[in-house]
Amino acid sequence: MRRYDSPVSEPRRDLADVLRELGWTIHRRAPERAGVGPIPTTEVALLKQVVENPGATVGELAQALGLRQPNVSRAVATLCAQGLVTKESSPTDRRITHVRATDLGRSEHEAITAGWSEPIEAALSSLSEKHQRTLGAAEEALTALYAALRGSDELPR
Predict the structure, then answer these.
(1) How is 132-154 classified by DSSP, letter by letter?
(2) Which of 26, 42, 43, 75 is 20 to 30 A from 83 (CA-CA)?
(3) What does pTM read for this prediction?
(4) Span 7-33, mean pLDDT?
């Protein structure tokens, strides 16, 4: 693997590589969900945001995901066409649209969560108890890393 000049230390660069590959592998191994078919990563993340923040506006969703509003608008339109979310105009300002998950969307979100969790659980159970404990203890640190990344101005928009 070719290394480029970087101010990041070798161990941290290696950790970043492992996390990137882990995310990609988890996404690839998640089974397809019946009925709706494959959903692109952006739409999976958007559906999760909508389920967790019912009634959020497209702008709020874009900000939460670190995406451009037109990209989120297109993804919302796709999820609407699949019957996973609905758009409702604000009763006080028709220019504002609120996005809510449908029953199918909430069900699909649960199926996606289970689909991602099952291969991880199977892989974890194949590890030594020491590695399982180490990964369990790392959850808090990984959550803090996630929060720091979400708050970073350096995230691609």
Answers:
(1) HHHHHHHHHHHHHHHHHHHT-TT
(2) 26
(3) 0.74
(4) 79
